[in-house]
Design a protein that fits this description.
Layout: H1 38-65, H2 72-78, H3 89-102, H4 104-124, H5 127-138, E1 144-147, H6 157-160, E2 164-168, E3 171-182, E4 189-196, E5 202-208, E6 214-218, E7 230-241, H7 252-287, E8 289-290, E9 293-294, H8 299-327, H9 333-357, H10 369-381, H11 386-398
């Protein structure tokens, strides 16, 4: 077992000498965190401090080994970050950003569990499911996964889902396959989306770990989010009680309500990824010397750093407006698609600039940037690709669908 040690955070300092710590140490040039109340700001700082002290220092090692740091879960549970959306969408979003700023895989683990599975139980589950399952989920004593994507169906999953659910007396029989399912290799509960053979509608079903016929196999050889345990799932006549159906799910639109919020969560991840790249690039540029002086003193390096923080700040500003829309009940999939496409496009540019600043060392995870650069590719692809989200925005502004 790996022993996790608390270390001093270094992300906001360019080097050990406080005399050369740069201005705007947190890279918040617009003081956007001032939008939080004093209580919210305290919670935000506490979460950021934990993530920088206990998650970020161990992330590269676990990433290199493609192993999940299970030892982190108890200390993460003590932070009481689950269900943060109930405290307000802006605070929740900023904490999601800080998760990704520390490590994208751990951010994804937490988001799948909290934003997708736990929220599904809260919003779409039965009173009995909420009573019996939610306490353990909120305390991270039990972990959830969300199984929607299939080997042959991603963007077209609402039309072409092949996984089936058939009513059999007081039970359901599930058959099919799922792919890229985060947390699935060790989750206690997996929310499987399947097409009801009786009415052709897509519904959600809870499958508990160890259920006969359910098999989850880890996907290996990934170049991105290597810590998160994605899986291929096989469902071979999996028999579950009728009560494991989420009664709030009767059509795919019910799944879509969850995907709206998860798409926003992933957009916050894209912001955090940009600040992670900026943090590492700036610290490196202020320490790395060429021709007798730090490369941060060179014009081209400063221009690249300026572009990085500009991209990140513009993305953050957009996400803050989305938090306002969510808080007033006006958030739609159009807004979520705009955020996902634009924030991830900015992110790709930002992490590429960061990798360039770190030079040859930027391709080694020893300098962290290579991990950040690679992890960005997962964010760019999941929860709707850039292309799909761009078409959603195009439809919104023209009224014409370009989908085939």
């Amino acid at each position: 077992m790996t022993v996790l040690k608390e270390t001093e955070p270094s992300v906001f300092a360019a080097c050990d000498d406080p005399a050369v710590t740069p201005p705007y140490a947190e890279a918040d040039l617009l003081f956007l965190s001032d939008l939080l109340t004093d209580e919210e700001h305290g919670l935000y700082l506490k979460a950021r401090d934990f993530l920088q002290r206990q998650v970020r220092p161990v992330a590269v090692d676990f990433w290199n080994r493609a192993e999940f740091p299970f030892e982190l879960i108890p200390s993460l549970a003590r932070q009481q970050l689950t269900g943060m959306n109930r405290r307000g969408p802006l605070l929740a979003g900023l904490i999601q950003m800080e998760f990704a700023r520390a490590d994208t895989s751990v951010s994804t683990f937490f988001g799948v569990h909290d934003e997708l599975f736990t929220t599904a139980i809260q919003e779409l589950g039965s009173e009995e499911q909420r009573r019996t399952i939610l306490p353990d989920l909120l305390a991270l004593r039990k972990i959830g996964a969300f199984a929607l994507t299939e080997p042959l169906h991603g963007s077209d999953i609402s039309r072409e889902m092949e996984t089936s659910a058939t009513r059999s007396g007081d039970a359901w029989i599930l058959n099919g396959h799922k792919r890229w399912i985060g947390n699935a290799t060790f989750a206690d509960f997996v929310l499987v989306w399947a097409r009801d053979t009786a009415d052709g509608q897509i519904k959600g079903f809870i499958v508990e770990k160890g259920t006969p016929g359910f098999r989850a196999e880890a996907i290996n050889n990934k170049i991105s989010v290597r810590i998160i345990q994605n899986a291929n799932i096989t469902l071979d006549n999996v028999r579950i009680p009728f009560s494991n159906w989420l009664p709030g799910t009767s059509t795919f639109q019910d799944a879509n309500s969850l995907l709206l919020h998860s798409r926003v969560w992933v957009s916050w991840q894209a912001v955090g990824q940009q600040f992670a790249a900026f943090d590492v690039a700036r610290a490196y540029a202020m320490q790395r010397k060429q021709f007798g002086k730090p490369i941060a003193s060179f014009q081209l390096i400063q221009e690249q750093l300026a572009r990085m923080v500009s991209n990140a700040t513009m993305s953050l500003s957009l996400m803050i407006q989305l938090a306002r829309l969510r808080g007033t009940g006006r958030l739609t999939m159009d807004h979520a698609a705009l955020a996902k496409s634009s924030c991830t496009a900015n992110m790709r540019k930002t992490v590429a600039l960061g990798r360039s600043i770190v030079g040859g060392n930027g391709i080694s995870t020893d300098f962290e940037m290579a991990k950040i650069f690679a992890d960005a590719e997962a964010i760019y692809s999941y929860e709707g690709s850039y292309e799909i989200n761009s078409l959603l925005v195009g439809r919104a502004v023209t009224g014409i669908s370009a989908f085939a």
